[in-house]
Specification:
By secondary structure, the protein is α/β, with parallel strands linked by helices. The chain has helices spanning 5-13, 56-69, 82-87, 105-115, 153-169, 208-219, 250-256, 272-282, 296-308, 313-316, 332-348; strands at 18-27, 37-41, 46-48, 73-77, 94-102, 120-127, 136-139, 145-147, 173-178, 187-195, 200-204, 223-228, 244-247, 264-267, 289-292, 319-320, 408-409. The radius of gyration is 24 Å and the shape is elongated. The chain has a 7-stranded mixed beta sheet with strand order 16-15-14-11-12-13-17, with helices on both faces. Strands 3-2-1-5-4 form a 5-stranded antiparallel beta sheet. The protein has a 5-stranded antiparallel beta sheet with strand order 8-7-6-10-9, sandwiched between helices. Helices cover 30% and strands 22% of the residues. Residues 355-410 are annotated as: Disordered.
Length: 410
């Protein structure tokens, strides 16, 4: 439910009665991941989704019922169930959904925390003693918590420790503990929803392609920063969709800013003065993705310079260059889609190939590759030298370079 916290926090502030259906687990080809939620208030207003349309109607009615009777239920929708087919679940997957009425201060605090962009984890009992089912526990990054699962204090402490581990990893999922807080004893299944600040996308190079990539990055949920050493180009008016526009030498900004294993770095500067010192640092950082724009000839020259700067083969293997998947992109917008597609494929473990005729899974487990262990979608792209043109030609940061003001933020 924390994925729709912005809207639900407003509902809570307005004093609305509502219930939330949250995906607990999925198997097979199910379109929405654990943590996805559908909320319905007493008037029948709905927000969110648990299935992309397959079982929305049935889940909507379960939420309406929970608002009325205050009961928490867990419902399974599977292709083998006649009810599932009646509800419209024809995708072949199985979905377990937890439906809870949202009442009390713990829920409000969790929604407010998530809506404000602060890290938090919400724990609820999915399978356990009846008196514990649906009871909320809010866990913060420092390990403190409020609320309770309705069992023994040891259960709350164990649940908080498990939730903190998932929160640190930015993951949502289920864990099983003993009812007494130990691994033994009657098992209790917990749903842990993690809400963390949005991941960062840092775009180096204030070129036309960057403007399109900023828009796509925001659409994908990234907090997007544009960095360029040239103040005449790095302006907020040129990048209204960016969360931050920084005027600084790219490598200096990367040294000074914070990144984490979810951060993606897109180097569009297309100039060795900027690229080499920047990539020498970027490829040694624990980030999710590093991509650089340029033709194959530019890439070969860039790799040679990076080798001379001391980078190892393992470090260079992390570089996605030329950046993006082979979509035949020409315009800045098409190129941005190409770059975004590669980022999604790398982070989710996809191969970047058409699904038509493929026998690979449609929905991957997600987060299967990061940093140095990331796969390389599109590595087998056409190597015909005739296709050596950079889609960003004409956008080089080397042209008309203006003096930099280190660290200026606009």
């Amino acid at each position: 439910m924390l994925d729709i916290a912005d809207e639900l926090a407003r509902w809570a502030e307005q004093g609305r009665d509502f219930a939330v259906a949250t995906v607990v687990s999925v198997t097979g080809s199910a379109p929405r991941p654990p943590g996805a939620a559908l909320a319905v208030d007493r008037d029948g207003t709905a927000v969110g989704s648990v299935s992309g349309g397959c079982v929305e109607g049935a889940v909507y009615e379960l939420c309406r019922q929970a608002v009325e009777d205050g009961r928490t239920v867990v419902e399974r929708f599977a292709p083998s169930d006649e009810d599932a087919f009646a509800a419209g679940l024809t995708c072949g997957g199985t979905i377990d959904v937890l439906v809870t009425p949202v009442r009390g201060g713990v829920y409000r605090a969790a929604l407010a925390q998530a809506a404000a962009g602060r890290a938090a984890a919400l724990v609820r009992v999915v399978d356990g003693p009846p008196e514990t089912r649906g009871r909320p526990l809010l866990v913060r990054p420092d390990g403190t918590y409020e609320g309770g699962l309705g069992g023994r204090p040891e259960l709350d402490r164990t649940a908080a420790a498990e939730a903190r581990a998932l929160l640190d990893a930015g993951r949502t999922g289920t864990v099983t503990v003993g009812a007494e807080g130990a691994r033994c004893g009657r098992p209790v299944t917990l749903l842990v929803e993690s809400s963390v600040p949005p991941p960062r996308m840092i775009v180096f190079g204030a070129v036309d392609f960057a403007s399109a990539l900023v828009r796509v990055g925001g659409f994908l949920g990234y907090r997007v920063t544009v960095c360029d050493a040239r103040p005449v180009f790095a302006t907020a008016s040129r990048f209204p969709g960016a969360d931050e526009v920084v005027v600084a030498w790219p490598h200096a900004y990367l040294d000074a800013t914070e990144v984490d294993p979810r951060t993606v770095l897109c180097v569009l500067t297309h100039d060795p003065r900027f690229d080499v010192p920047l990539l020498r640092r970027a490829l040694r950082l624990p980030v999710a993705y590093v991509g650089a724009m340029g033709s194959r000839r530019t890439h070969e020259d860039r790799v040679r310079r990076l080798r001379e700067a001391g980078l190892t083969d393992r470090e260079l293997d992390r570089l996605h260059s030329p950046i993006g998947l082979d979509l035949g992109a020409r315009t800045p917008e098409e190129t941005a889609v190409s770059i975004a597609a590669e980022i999604v494929a790398v982070l989710r473990g996809g191969g970047g190939a058409p699904l038509t005729g493929a026998r690979t899974p449609i929905h991957h487990d997600g987060d299967t590759a990061h940093g140095a262990d990331a796969g390389r979608p599109g590595a087998g792209r056409d190597e015909d030298p005739a296709r050596d043109e950079d889609p960003a030609r004409g956008g080089s940061a080397a042209r008309g370079a203006a003096p930099a003001r280190d660290g200026a933020v606009v």
